[in-house]
Design goal:
Layout: H1 16-25, H2 29-42, E1 46-48, H3 53-56, H4 80-84, H5 100-104, H6 114-122, H7 129-140, H8 152-163, H9 169-180, H10 192-201, H11 210-219, H12 221-226, H13 229-236, H14 240-251, E2 273-278, E3 281-286, E4 294-296, H15 298-312, H16 316-356, H17 358-363, H18 373-380, H19 384-391, E5 395-398, E6 401-404, E7 412-414, E8 420-422, H20 423-435, H21 445-454, H22 461-470, H23 476-479
Parallel strand pairs: 2-5
Antiparallel strand pairs: 1-4, 2-3, 5-6, 7-8
């Protein structure tokens, strides 16, 4: 049996302009620059620059203009005075100073990637044509951290399929071994053990501890990672002095050769804000370098006015063109308003952060206050999700360096004196305690909790474990080191 039911419900739907604003809000400065460029390319009515008064024809009364709308045409016309003549500070933002224009045009440095460097080195080897094909395939398969995680079988199949060359896995292994010994030594290793062995193999024979270090990694790798020093000494037949010498040599090696240099692009942090302290307090500014002033192209505005006159005379083509311009005009207006609203919201969030974290901006590290997203949302009277979008991926330039906005958010912990401090302060205290511990007898998490309590931070052992893991600090057994008397 088919039953019909009627249900009434309330749903909140976002307008296209609201959706556009939300998307723009979460973009960092460089991504916003690309978004603005894309909009300028797709909408011919948009262009960079400030509106000029003579473009607006403000001195001519509307009744005397040829394009003045009558009452029946009000729906087709834009309120240009409201849209184009809005004051600069309507949304709490002013354009960046002109001297930033030079920075915007500054060229980026020309940096060669690690892949290009490896290919240049390969060109100096005595490889034949087939070996060069294999080398190129290997280099193209290296991850950004410098490791080769692609199976040799896959590289073999690609070369055979793409170039019709018959190969064996031994051919690929032979070329791979040569590449691993280029600069940086250990590049294209398949795991950490292989990376360390290659670096030790390429060391001069007279390096102190080299032979024991090689045996340590080759024959006792698992015991080495677990720091079972007694087991290593028995297996290699060496004393504590030789073990420490070999151990220290292995620790001096590069675990990720090529990391940070392998990608062709360089990643720079571009601060979205700048906070400067002066005699009147803290001055907050947005990075305007990548957010130019936008306006509607004067040529299209004049065209709009001309079409209005033609439309009155019943010109069908003019009507169709004007409808097209109206769509583009609305899109331009929405985009400009969304950019302005984004700037306003971002400034409000940063002002609230500085208000709460004034001790940090005044004195630097060690003076962070507990702060969560809800605290900011309550100050600026906006939703927590809005604050989250502003904070995510944004950076601020301060007197003490560049910080991600997330750095200023942390839960609070009450000290034994009743004072509430940021958990980041507790984490810093924990790291200091661990750095000062006896490396031959590292402290357990329970002992660390007891020491923190003595310093006025009464937290549970499981909380210490959580903070230690967040800081990528290993357990006590793995922090143990060999210290000779």
């Amino acid at each position: 049996m088919l039953n019909l039911h009627q249900k009434q419900s309330l749903q909140q739907k976002l307008s296209p302009q609201q959706i556009q604003y939300i998307k723009l809000l979460q973009l960092p400065t460089l991504a916003l620059e690309q978004r603005i460029k894309a909009e300028l390319e797709s909408n011919p009515l948009l262009e960079e620059g400030m509106e000029e008064e003579d473009d607006l024809n403000l001195d001519t009364p509307e009744a005397e203009r040829d394009d003045a709308p009558d009452e029946k045409q009000q729906d087709d016309e834009f309120d240009w005075d409201e849209f184009l003549n809005a004051p600069d500070d309507l949304y709490g933002y002013k354009a960046a100073p002109d001297n930033e224009e030079d920075d915007r045009e500054a060229p980026m440095p020309d940096l060669s990637s690690m892949a290009e460097s490896l290919r240049e080195q390969v060109g100096l080897l005595d490889f034949d044509e087939t070996e060069e094909l294999i080398a190129d395939q290997i280099i193209g398969s290296i991850d950004e951290d410098g490791y080769l995680r692609r199976p040799v079988e896959s590289i073999l199949d690609d070369v055979m399929f793409n170039f019709g060359v018959m190969l064996t896995e031994a051919d690929v292994e032979r070329v791979l071994s040569r590449i691993q010994r280029l600069e940086p030594v250990g590049i294209a290793a398949r795991d950490l053990r292989e990376c360390l062995l290659v670096q030790l193999d390429m060391m001069p024979n007279d390096v102190d501890g080299r032979e024991n270090a090689y045996d340590l990694v080759h024959d006792c790798y698992k015991a080495f990672t677990m720091k079972h020093f007694d087991q290593i000494q028995r297996k290699l037949g060496i004393d504590e002095y030789d073990l420490k010498e070999a151990y220290d040599l292995v620790r001096s090696l590069d675990p990720k050769p090529g990391e940070g240099d392998f990608a062709a692009q360089t990643n720079y942090i571009t601060p979205d804000y700048t906070v400067v302290r002066d005699d009147e307090g803290f001055r907050i500014s947005l990075n305007g370098r990548n957010a130019p002033e936008l306006r509607v192209n004067a040529h299209y505005r004049n065209m709009w006015n001309d079409l209005s006159a033609k439309k009155k005379r019943g010109d069908k083509a003019a009507t169709e063109t004007k409808n097209f311009l109206k769509t583009r005009m609305e899109s331009a207006r929405w985009f400009i308003n969304s950019i302005q609203q984004r700037r306003n919201t971002m400034l409000k969030v940063m002002e609230a952060i500085v208000q709460i974290q004034e001790p940090f901006f005044e004195h630097g590290a060690g003076h962070l206050r507990p702060m969560i997203l809800k605290d900011i949302a309550e100050i600026i009277h906006m939703d927590i999700s809005t604050v989250s979008r502003v904070v995510n991926g944004k950076y601020v330039q301060t007197e003490w360096g560049v910080f991600e906005l997330k750095h200023f958010f942390s839960e609070g912990i009450e000290t034994d004196t009743g004072e509430e401090v940021s958990n980041k302060e507790v984490k810093a205290a924990l790291e200091r305690i661990i750095s000062d511990e006896d490396k031959t007898k590292p402290w357990s998490d329970q002992k660390l909790a007891d020491l923190l309590a003595e310093k006025g931070y009464p937290i549970a052992r499981r909380t210490v474990t959580k903070y230690r893991e967040q800081a990528n600090i290993p357990v006590a057994r793995l922090r143990r080191q060999i210290v000779l008397a």
